[in-house]
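ingest -> validate -> predict -> emit
validate: passed (alphabet ok, no gaps, 84 aa)
predict: started
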Amino acid sequence: IDPVDGTTNFASGGPLTCVSIGLCDEGRPVMGVAFAPATRELYLSIRGKGAYRNGQRIYGSDDSETSTAKTLSNSVVCFEFGYA
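emit:
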């Protein structure tokens, strides 16, 4: 559970934060939920059941319904340095 995922954004007044909850069974991810209050987006993923954004099914790059697969070279990668 991460009650404020994006702590630096939150502390500086930025809107891009969320509440994240994950569930593992014997060390294996089973379910994840993330809610972003500023954008009112709710993401839910359950192993074997798919992933959803606000109740609509979404697909990852290895799903058959995806048009193009993403690679590291054509992706946006970011990380947080924490408080400066």
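The helical segments are 7-11.
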